[in-house]
């Protein structure tokens, strides 16, 4: 964790700027080329904060649930140590919750409401002392201490009840959805799966803690794999134009049984393309049937 005298934070991505104006992308940017950062030469008026300010904001953490949970709030894992706690700071620069479920996590993880400052576009804050934990992972991957911390922070310590639920995480109505969603859902219902729309649930940590099997397309809803119990099974439906290692890494770090099914995207971008794919994808129903039967039978 870096300590900066009179350090500044800029905007909804929490980009870090030193006292002399030096931009420090390693602390908020997630590993891609930092020349994509766009910071104006003349910053807006600074809001001065007395005392210490802790930043939990990371790139895209104010607009996407996965980045909010894993890259932003996950930084608490580097803060809550026997020798240090959030209670020692006067302010916490938090990602603006992108959903009601994300907002509920701020209370659940005991971030004091009266100390929160919500990140916003164009906002610049400068603290007497700025504390910035590093990105809680490396090159789009996560370490075992992250899901272990998130489980404890959510209150899942002790002897948990055995997981029994089977969840299918739908992306209906979002970008990158399955073209044959109705047929996919029919296959899953036949095998005892719930069709789970994350936006409809404030209890996502509890629901995933109770899940024995999770099936879902690559997307923010799978960030909740962090709350699954070790040994739970995961089948990621992985579009060929959006094959990133986020959830493979998270599942392995959480000691889950991970598998994936490659699904053909309706379009393919060049290798140097940046960001999430805009294309929907097709699922081979015969391949999905084989994969589901293997999950359910083992």
Largest sheet: 7 strands, mixed
Structural class: alpha/beta
Percent of residues in β-strands: 15-25%
Strand/helix succession: EEEEHEHEEHEHEHEEHEEH
**Helical coverage, percent range:** 10-25%
Unreliable residue runs? none
Integer tally of domains: 2
**Mind telling me the C-alpha Rg?**
20 Å
Number of helices: 7
How would you portray this structure in words?
The protein is an alpha/beta fold and about 300 residues long. The chain has helices at about 65-70, 100-110, 145-155, 180-190, 205-210, 245-255, 285-295, and strands at about 1-5, 10, 15, 45-55, 90-95, 115-120, 125-130, 165-170, 195, 210-215, 235-240, 255-265, 280. The strands form 2 sheets. Strands 1, 2, 3, 4, 5, 6 and 7 form a 7-stranded mixed sheet that branches. A 6-stranded mixed sheet has the order 9-8-10-11-12-13. α4 (about 180-190) packs parallel to α7.
List the helices and strands and how they pair.
Blueprint lengths: L1 E4 L2 E3 L4 E3 L28 E10 L9 H8 L18 E4 L5 H9 L7 E3 L5 E9 L12 H9 L11 E5 L11 H10 L3 E3 L7 H6 L1 E7 L15 E7 L6 H8 L3 E9 L15 E2 L2 H13 L1
Parallel strand pairs: 4-5, 4-7, 5-6, 8-9, 8-10, 10-11, 11-12
Antiparallel strand pairs: 1-7, 2-3, 2-7, 12-13
Summarize the structure.
The protein is an alpha/beta fold and 298 residues long.
Task: List the main descriptive attributes of the protein structure presented here.
globular; alpha/beta; single chain; 13 strands; 298 residues; seven-stranded mixed sheet; 21% helix; 2 domains; 7 helices; six-stranded mixed sheet; Rossmann fold
């Amino acid at each position: 964790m870096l300590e900066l005298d009179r350090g500044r934070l800029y905007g909804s991505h929490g980009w870090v700027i030193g006292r002399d104006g030096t931009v420090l992308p390693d602390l908020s940017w997630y590993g891609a080329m930092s020349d994509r950062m766009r910071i104006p030469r003349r910053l807006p008026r600074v809001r001065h904060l007395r005392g210490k300010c802790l930043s939990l904001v990371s790139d895209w953490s104010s607009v996407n649930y996965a980045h909010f949970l894993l890259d932003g709030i996950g930084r608490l894992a580097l803060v809550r140590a026997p020798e240090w706690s959030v209670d020692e700071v006067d302010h916490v620069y938090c990602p603006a919750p992108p959903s009601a479920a994300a907002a509920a996590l701020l209370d659940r993880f005991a971030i004091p409401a009266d100390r929160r400052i919500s990140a916003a576009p164009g906002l610049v804050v400068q603290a007497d002392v700025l504390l910035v934990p590093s990105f809680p992972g490396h090159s789009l991957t996560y370490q075992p201490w992250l899901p272990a911390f998130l489980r404890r922070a959510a209150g899942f310590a002790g002897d948990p009840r055995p997981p029994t639920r089977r969840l299918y995480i739908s992306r209906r109505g979002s970008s990158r959805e399955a073209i044959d969603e109705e047929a996919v859902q029919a296959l899953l219902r036949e095998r005892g799966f719930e069709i789970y729309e994350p936006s409809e649930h404030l209890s996502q940590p509890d629901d995933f803690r109770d899940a024995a099997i999770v099936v879902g397309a690559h997307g923010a809803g799978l960030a909740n794999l962090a709350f699954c119990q070790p040994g739970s099974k995961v089948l990621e439906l992985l579009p060929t134009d959006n094959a990133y290692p986020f959830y493979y890494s998270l599942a392995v770090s959480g000691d889950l049984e991970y598998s994936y099914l490659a699904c053909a995207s309706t379009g393919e971008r060049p290798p140097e393309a940046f960001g999430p794919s805009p294309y929907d994808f097709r699922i081979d129903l015969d391949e999905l049937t084989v994969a589901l039967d293997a999950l359910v039978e083992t």
